[in-house]
Every structure is written in structure tokens, then in C-alpha cells.
């Protein structure tokens, strides 16, 4: 299993709402954390999307497509993607 996180900032609540709608339409499940981001010395309202998945259901290519769409919706110069191997169990 893998844990992928997508870190992004947004300018207003409408952008954030559109990101959530997009995610709900394109992912089976995810978690969103609130955060504060600092980019080029500017403090920004940010979110972290965490997705637990296997590479069959969610490929690296698909994750990049999702991140790029979030970047467009939120009108951001860039977003950060991190992925790591994890052990997980749904009980």
C-alpha cells in the first residue's frame, strides 16, 4: 500500500469547494487536513489531501493528473506530491 499526500493552497473558499467536488468525483476515499503553508515567504491557507491506495487502483500517472487539476482549480503555481510505502489495515 502507498500513502500519497497532495499539498495545495487556495485563494478562496469557492476554489476549495470545487477541489472537494472534483476529489469526490474522482477518488473512492481521502482525508483532508488543514495546514499553513509558506511559499516564497508568503503565508498561505493550505490543505493536505491524504490518499491510501495501491498502485493498481491509483497509478502515479493518475495521481499527477489529479494534482494538476487541483493546481488549475486552485489557481496555484505548483502543488507538492509525496508518496511513501506504508503498512495499513482496515479493521
Summarize the structure in short.
The protein is an alpha+beta fold.
Structure description:
The protein is of the alpha+beta class and 91 residues long. It has a single domain (2-85), classed as Alpha-Beta Plaits, CATH 3.30.70.120. Helices cover 31% and strands 38% of the residues. It is built from 2 helices and 4 strands, in the order βαββαβ. It has helices at 13-26, 60-73; strands at 2-9, 31-39, 42-53, 80-85. A 4-stranded antiparallel sheet has the order 2-3-1-4, with helices on one face. A hairpin with a 2-residue loop joins β2 (31-39) and β3 (42-53). α1 packs antiparallel against α2 (60-73). The chain is globular, with a radius of gyration of 13 Å. The two termini are 15 Å apart.
Q: Look at the structure and give the mean pLDDT.
A: 94
Order of strands, widest sheet: 2-3-1-4
Helix content: 25-40%
Name of the CATH class = Alpha Beta
Q: Indicate the CATH topology.
A: Alpha-Beta Plaits
CATH arch. level architecture? 2-Layer Sandwich
What structural class do the secondary elements suggest? alpha+beta
Radius of gyration: 13 Å
Element pattern in H and E:
EHEEHE
Shape: globular
Strand content: 35-45%
CA(first)-CA(last) distance: 15 Å
Low-confidence parts: none
Record field, number of beta strands:
4
How many H/I helices? 2
Number of domains: 1
Query: How would you characterize the largest beta sheet?
Result: 4 strands, antiparallel
